[in-house]
Amino acid sequence: MPHEHAVPHATWVRSCCLTDFVRQSLAVAEADVRKLRHDPTELITRAVQPTLWLLVFGQVMGRLREVPTGSLSYRDFMAPGILAQSVLFISIFYGISIIWERDMGILQKFIASPAPRVALVLGKALSAGVRGLTQAVIVYFLAVVIGINARFGLLNIVGVLFSTILGAAIFSTFSMIVACLVKTRERMMGIGQVLTMPLFFASNAIYPLALMPAWLQVIAKINPLSYQVDLLRALMIEGGQSAFGIGVDLAVQLAVLVVLVGLAARLYPRIVA
Amino acid sequence: MYMNTAADEHAVRPALEAVHLTRRFGSFTAVDAISFSVLPGTIFGLLGPNGAGKSTTIKMLTTLLLPTAGTGRVNGFDIVRQSVDVRRVIGYVPQMLSADGNLTALENLLIFAKLYGIPRAERRERIMEVLAFMGLADVAGVLVRKFSGGMIRRLEIAQSMLHRPPVLFLDEPTVGLDPVARRSVWEHIFRLRTEFGTTILLTTHYMEEAEELCQQVAIMHHGRVVTLGAPADLKGVAGVATLDEAFAHFTGSSIQEGGTYRDAARARRTARHLG
């Protein structure tokens, strides 16, 4: 025999507890954060869209004074909607990144590791959340520049950042589910395009639900984006009110996330099959 | 040189086994009830043209793909029923370029050290150890997209051995590499076996690679294992001088043929990334 010494076994590689799970999820997210640090151009290009919506669309629509936004000015009303929207736009195409990593062979190695699939999915959702955070920073910055009545209390800001991550996690996980089913970049692009606008328009992002016809209100109320916008509006804007109640907003979003992550974890291995 | 005798097979538990392993995609049978076993410390080659079923076999043994029928065992763990245990004891280098080009070599390894639960106190040391072993210590902080194809492959192997797996899967480890880089990768694979006793299953369609590295090879053709043995024995049985000729003898066709459009596209894409 060519070797007498024992094979060094990986006996300490045991993932049994929560700390392992958290560490593995964070490791997946860390890879993305480090990539962004090496090449932050993406973050700059991402700033264009919310700027246009707030500066151009918001200014013009604000002059109409026709949208019943209660005690809020239209720009104040729409700012949280624009934050939610730009987070949605980033997240809904997030599935493309896992298809890309699959094509490269990177994803195969993650899936062949002992990390639970749920940790892999949550890690990805979290890194979409980090990208979402940059949008929150941009919208807050614009808020100061154009004089939106934003709240700057510590709890408010922490709350806004948290719900931004939550929203990004929901829609990126949804996107990953679609990616696992359609498996190619081209199809994913097409489906992402088809999904974004309906999700955006069938929500309370840029007009209140009360303005919608009844059938659209029903759709808007099952759209998780509405709950994200509602939560952001209450947390972010001076005088902003939650229409559903902050507790409901949180509960609905967390429940949706749990279901989506569970589903994505089941489907995740399919993308490399 | 290791000799595969009946006595050994009873004495030592195989590190790796396929038992009537089968995978169908619709009506197409990619892997057709193949069986083999690999003893610890062996470099075992799955040989065949693109589309022979090698990658599908690796995907099943690494738990990326469920078998349609049959099963496999890695270090005694069943690939279907104990897939998580299997994942703990294997390292895997896919055929495609799998190191992240937008991270440094060190970062690539760091992420996997965390994923595999290597304790914080050991991470740095372990990472530097595998980098040194693969001859990459002085480029630890360099972005991987600036690496050559051979360096990327060595990094990927470093990544797969970080948690010291007893069994390693290498899917076409030298595809698209120039002869110098190829030889360097071979040397490192060989050292893994001699220094750590790692059992290695590799797929290749380069006969030279199989002859150079493998103690045992299985020739695959249309999803079946046509023949199995030490390269020298296969040449002896076929009565030919090279493994290339032995392959033609056992399959009735040249290794250069075969493969689907998708295989060819993938192989070239990999070659382009690596080149």
Briefly, what is this?
Chain A has 273 residues and is an all-alpha fold.
Kindly state the number of beta strands of chain A: 0
Distance from N terminus to C terminus of chain B (CA atoms, Å) equals 34 Å
Q: Structural class of chain B, please?
A: alpha/beta
User: What's the average pLDDT of chain A?
Assistant: 90
Q: Radius of gyration of chain A over alpha carbons?
A: 21 Å
Helix proportion of chain A: over 70%
- Overall mean pLDDT of chain B: 88
Give the biggest beta sheet of chain A: none
Hey, roughly how much beta strand do the residues of chain A contain? under 5%
The biggest sheet of chain B, with number of strands, parallel, antiparallel or mixed sense and barrel status, is: 6 strands, mixed
Classify the secondary structure makeup of chain A into a structural class: mainly alpha
Please state the oligomeric state of the protein chains shown.
Answer: heterodimer
Number of helices of chain A: 12
Kindly report how far apart the N and C termini of chain A lie: 37 Å
Q: What pair of chains forms the biggest interface? A: A-B, 40 and 47 residues
Helix-strand string of chain B:
HEEEHEEHEHHHEHEHEEHHH
Low-confidence stretches of chain B: 1-7
Beta-strand content bin of chain B: 15-25%
Q: List the secondary-structure elements of chain A in sequence, H or E.
A: HHHHHHHHHHHH
Spatial strand arrangement across the major sheet of chain B: 6-7-8-3-9-10
